[in-house]
Amino acid sequence: MIIPNTDFDPTEAGVPWSVLTEAGHDVWFATEDASKAQCDQITLSGEGLNGTLKSLAARPENRRVYEQMYSSPRFAEPLAWSDVNPEEFDALVLPGGHAPGMKPYLEAESVFDICRNFFDRKAPVASICHGVLALARTSGEDGRSILHGYEVTGLTNFQEKIALRMTKKTMGLHYQTYPETVQDEVSQALKEPKDFKPGPMLSGFGTAKSPGKGFIVESGHLLSARWPGDAYKMSQALLARLDS
Predict the structure, then answer these.
(1) Residues forming a β-bridge with 145
(2) pLDDT digit string (tens) for 194-240?
(3) Range of the domain at 160
(4) How many other C-beta atoms are found inside a 10 Å radius of the C-beta of residue 91?
(5) Three-state SS for 192?
(6) Which residues of 131-146 are buried (b: 16+ CB within 10 A; e: fewer)?
(7) Is residue 63 part of a domain?
């Protein structure tokens, strides 16, 4: 699992870790400089997210999952992105997040190198929310994005714009990573813009008890999802790939 040093979404990292570790898989982490990472603290705590804004905060059960992950030995001693040998790993997980600390993760050549290796091997890759930008920005041997020819999803225009609109007055641009939306940038990297699948507006919020709720896109070895509500469904689909 590749994560930035700060500002990743606690649910989008914690849920895959929980599902995979409970099934007996060993999840390793990689951060920019091998230091222990910190998620987006506003999303984790919900501080300042009052009224309707509470929907942007991690749910209590997912906060507990994150805290368990944060206390785990692997999370405490991550690899550095540049030290990762992708050949040693069976699958790649790319969580998302909104806040500015996501940028190094979405702009690093060392991260792109890892993504390229997994696509070259057609090994399982699961991305969610902004995580798909790391794939969209990775070029293959033909110079095109490695996502060219795949169907994908990620944070949708509707989801991204409403989060910014709801929080801009009190939090500024905390919930805007880039001026261009995820959906707009990723769509340009695909063979056809229609290969970006936004999914239904209301698809349910997946939980440990109802992991089938949510929306994901499966395209070859690639699994993609949009937001924390899809994290369980994506994680279960990845688990099925690993255990098949």
Answers:
(1) 139
(2) 999 999 987 799 999 999 999 999 999 999 999 999 999 999 999 99
(3) 10-243
(4) 20
(5) coil
(6) bbbbbbbbeeeeeebb
(7) yes
In the numeric block, the tokens 């070259």 are attached to 120
Contacts of 52 (CB under 8 A, 6+ apart): 166
Query: Count of CB atoms within 10 A of residue 82's CB?
Result: 15
Alpha carbon distance 84, 46 (integer Å): 33
Give the mean pLDDT of 95-118. 97
Separation in Å, CA 200 to CA 148, 194, 217, 239: 23, 15, 12, 24
Place of tokens 């937001």: 227
The CATH number given to whatever domain includes residue 76 is 3.40.50.880
> 125 with 114: CB under 8 angstroms?
no
Domain count, the chain: 1
Backbone CA torsion sign across 174, 180, 185, 187: positive
Instruction: Tokens 């699994």: give the residue.
Output: 223
Half-sphere exposure of 71 (CA within 13 A, CB side): 6
Is 205 inside a domain boundary?
A: yes
Residue pair 65/15 in contact by the 8 Å Cβ criterion = yes
DSSP codes, 109-157: HHHHHHHHHHHHHT--EEEETTHHHHHHT-B-TTSSBTTTT--B--S-H
